[in-house]
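Section 4.2 – Deliverable D4.2 (structural model, holo form)

The reporting period included a commitment to supply a predicted holo structure for the target in complex with NAP. Inputs used:
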Amino acid sequence: MKQRTALIAGASGLVGGECLRRLLASDAYTKVTVVTRHSLGSAAKHPKLREIVIDFAQLDRIKTELRADHVFCALGTTIRKAGSRAKFREVDFEYPRHLAELALRNGAKHFSLVSALGASSKSGVFYSRVKGELEDALRAMHWPSLCILRPSVIAGDRRESRPLERLSVALLRFGPATYRPVAAGKIAAAMIATAQREPRGVTILESSEIPRAAG
Ligand SMILES: NC(=O)c1ccc[n+]([C@@H]2O[C@H](COP(=O)([O-])OP(=O)(O)OC[C@H]3O[C@@H](n4cnc5c(N)ncnc54)[C@H](OP(=O)(O)O)[C@@H]3O)[C@@H](O)[C@H]2O)c1
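Output (structure tokens):
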């Protein structure tokens, strides 16, 4: 088995946290670097783990440290939490774009992005448009291997209360496969399984394809 190093952005979140647990437990990864705005506290105590606490607006300050074979990005906010569309765009577009640019320059081979169902730079919906613009920006970087996952609503145990999201998970469970909720653990497993193969060029995993890709 080829051994790799990994870097995660968004490790304190639902999908990123699942990525972190799986990568730390995997023999395929010798080192896991987490870039985070808040320390993960006791969750960051692992011999394979290195935590870098930084304001993402200042990623340039740690540019030489953003070095790994595989980058897993599950960063994101909501317009409500961010407080404005501009701030949302900063978190969901600017930070991941900048991270990808720096990691690629440092020799990363694979970038895995949690985007969203319906992401398109031509979308009339602001959220989907920002996600699509990020996808386009990543494609334009010509990663040796790029995986974009487009989940519908994400299911899992959140500390934070998101009643609308919980309702969508409950209702969509019985809906068409395209819209069915996807467990955060499945998304993380699909990200890692795909990274392991390092497929050349761009791989898109639509929501309904994620469970199978998770293996
Ligand atoms: N939730 C859904 O149903 C859904 C559906 C489709 C797609 N998505 C997308 O999937 C991705 C992962 O979703 P998730 O539910 O796992 O996300 P999440 O649990 O909300 O976690 C988001 C991560 O982004 C970080 N983050 C947020 N604002 C930040 C900032 N200003 N600076 C630095 N880090 C910041 C959070 O760090 P802190 O812990 O420090 O806040 C956290 O680690 C997101 O891009 C989301 O848009 C979500």
